[in-house]
Each structure stands twice: as structure tokens, then as C-alpha cells.
Amino acid sequence: MSCIDEHSYLTLCNLLSDQIALSLPPDKVYLAEARLQNLARQHTHGDINALIEKASTVADDALRTELVEAMAINETYFFRDPILSQSFLDTMVPALLEKRRRDKTLRIWSAACSTGQEAYSVAMLLDQHFPQLKEWEVTLIASDFSQSALNKAQQGCYGLNEMNRGLPARNMALYFEQQGLDWQAKPAIRERISFQKINLVREWPDSLPVFDIVLLRNVLLYFSMEDRQRVLARVRKHTANDGYLLLGSTESLEKTAGFVPAIPGNHRPFYQPA
Ligand SMILES: C[S@@+](CC[C@H](N)C(=O)[O-])C[C@H]1O[C@@H](n2cnc3c(N)ncnc32)[C@H](O)[C@@H]1O
């Protein structure tokens, strides 16, 4: 395996920042080497520096996409941190059921959904705890820039290790069926989610609605401050004035972001428009 030289690492950092706003710290060379090995074997005889050079200079969008997707941090699991379930069940959905009782519409966006566990967790929570929503028009959009992550999300097919990360046994039996060694979400739950390719730092589809709940979890922490602010300003425009924004459990927002904690004085990652 080749090592990444300083020039190539800088090129890689610039490429990732430009394509997906990923701000790669200087000490992650080993990560890049591990992530790009396979791709380098396929395209540049194992030479990672040549791979980076090729992906960044040649008009080869497919290779560039493959490289950027290989570097993305896709870590996710079902019901990731209980705050999500708790705030959904106790506060957000009950409040929205009341506020939207005339229109009977609810719109939720999992805005960096990775391989889909977050969106399926939301779909399962709604199904189990709010049966009245069966009569509502519920839109649940799950998006990511990464087509390979989205493909997996759309299939809803997970290995046992992934199933064992956060998914209660009862939900496994209720919402999934075994397919060989894997488990696949049943069509009834998969069909509730609409998967879309959206890069948060590129054009968003004109059809993207205003949402009641936006989950923007564990993605902004990889962005520079400027990119965070830019994305949050756009997210604000797609969040209903009485809607909610959910970040990851270790994330928080600056005061200037256009959102305030949903429960005053409570710094859980749970916000409302200011
Ligand atoms: C660490 S995962 C978080 C997944 C899920 N939200 C969670 O909290 O479990 C971060 C996801 O953000 C996606 N991502 C990174 N940059 C992005 C961008 N510019 N636009 C859209 N998605 C992006 C990655 O592909 C990855 O799937």
C-alpha cells in the first residue's frame, strides 16, 4: 500500500471540502490511506497519490464520486441516542399533532440519513406510538449525498451486527423479515420513506417542502464554521416557524444560527426557529 504524501493529502482535503464540505483534520492521513486502498487498487495499481491526482484533475466525475463516497463518515445505528425517541414521543409529535390537526399533514426530513437507520427509526416510532397518523398525509424524506449509502437505505437491508445496534427485538420481529443472512425492512415501512440524493452544500431540489421536523444529526460537526452557517440558514428556510430541528447528541448551535433550544435553558440538541 502506498502512503499519502503531503501534497496529495492537501489535494484530498480541498476536494472533500469543495464537494461535500467535509473538513478533514491534518491528523487523519491514516484514515484516508485505509479508506482509499481498495479504490487505488482498482484504478491506479494501488497508488493512492495517483488516485487522488486522477480524481481531482481528470474530468472523471465517476471516479471523483467514488473517492468522495469512500471518504464519507457513514457511522449510524437504529434509535441512535434515546433523546431522539424521547423528544419525539414526549414533545415534538404531540405538539405537532395538535398544531396540524386541521391540515392533517406532517413533514419530516432526515437530512443526512446515511444507510437509513435514522429514517427507519422515525418511521417505526410514528407507527408504534401515533396510530392516528394513518389518516394523515405523512411525508418522510431521507436524503444523503452518497448514492451508495442511499442505495442501502432504500433497500433497508441490514446484517445482524447492524440489526443488533439499537434495534429492539420487538421491532425486528414487527418491521423486518429475514433475507438469507440479512434482514430487510418490510415493504409497509420502506414505502413510508422517500429517498432522495441531496448534497447539503449544492443545489437542493425545488420540490423540497418546508418541514415540521428536520433531523440534521451528526453531519455538521464535520463542516467548517462557514459551511455550517450556510447550511443552517438554508435549513431554517425549510423549517416551519413552529417546527423543530434535531442535531446529534454531542452537537450544539451557536446563537446566530437562527434556532433556539426548544426547551429554554435545556441544551439538548433539540431546537426551534428563533
Ligand atoms: C455520521 S453519518 C450520520 C447519519 C445519521 N444522521 C445519524 O446521526 O446516525 C453522516 C452522514 O452525512 C452524510 N453527508 C456528509 N456530507 C454531506 C453533504 N454535504 N450532504 C449530504 N450528506 C452529507 C454522509 O454521507 C453520512 O451518511
TrEMBL record:
Coiled-coil blocks: none
Naturally occurring in which organism (per UniProt): Alcanivorax jadensis T9
Lineage, broadest ranks: Bacteria, Pseudomonadati, Pseudomonadota, Gammaproteobacteria, Oceanospirillales
UniProt KW keywords: Methyltransferase, Transferase
UniProt key word Cytoplasm: no
Pfam families xrefs: CheR
One example GO MF annotation: methyltransferase activity
Protein origin, superkingdom: Bacteria
Record-annotated CheR-type methyltransferase domain positions: 1-274
SUPFAM superfamilies, sorted: Chemotaxis receptor methyltransferase CheR, N-terminal domain (SSF47757), S-adenosyl-L-methionine-dependent methyltransferases (SSF53335)
Gene3D superfamilies the UniProt entry points to: Vaccinia Virus protein VP39
Protein name: CheR-type MCP methyltransferase
Listed GO biological process terms: methylation
Alphabetical list of SMART domains matching this protein: MeTrc (SM00138)
